[in-house]
Amino acid sequence: MEKHNKAVAEIAADVRAFYDRKEPFRISRGSTNSTRSILLRQGNGVDISHLCHVLKVDTHARTALVEPNVPMDRLVETTLKCGLIPPVVIELPGITVGGGYAGTSGESSSFKHGFFNRTINYVNMILANGGLVKALETERPDLFSGAAGAVGSLGIDTGVELRLIQATKYVETTYHPVASVPEATQELRQFATNSDLDYLDGILVSLHQGLVIAGRMTNDLQPNLPICSFTVCQRNTQTT
pTM of the full predicted structure? Predict the structure, then answer.
């Protein structure tokens, strides 16, 4: 945390200097598989690409304190070591925690947990004048809710505490064919009220053909169902 606090203080000082001089500046967050790095000329901006670490995973409170440039794949890899996982796992592995908050990202578990920003307890931010603040639902709630979806225009995220849930070994998915958008909508509305489900997704490949996919977290293997990991599939022959 000492290294993190020092880095944040230096970034805040840089922002404050631009504010005092009334000079515009650019922010470089580094690059991922979904963004590209901004080339900063000397004295032209603020580099926060080094804020890319998981600072703490609290297994008792089931929370993780992370810097904003932590990509989703690294976050999940870290929390899984503790038997935990974020309630909303953003699909693209390179999407960062800060990006998920600033962009109100949603995924197949959002019907249950809301957008990614709804799984966050608080956000530490640097304001345009260089001030350091903490925003949460009960403290600066306007900033906490307003910065979600503001794509970084209200401040620079420096730390995010998000909630975690218990991980399981598997996700059991069931595929339900649908023949139209109204049918898919009806199926999704029905499944969304099922408390046993953890994930809902769907795809239409034509006007008259598609799938609604329902998933639930489980540690149990069903006999004769395939075990799939991305593009790798194997047949489970376990019997009960």
Answer: 0.85
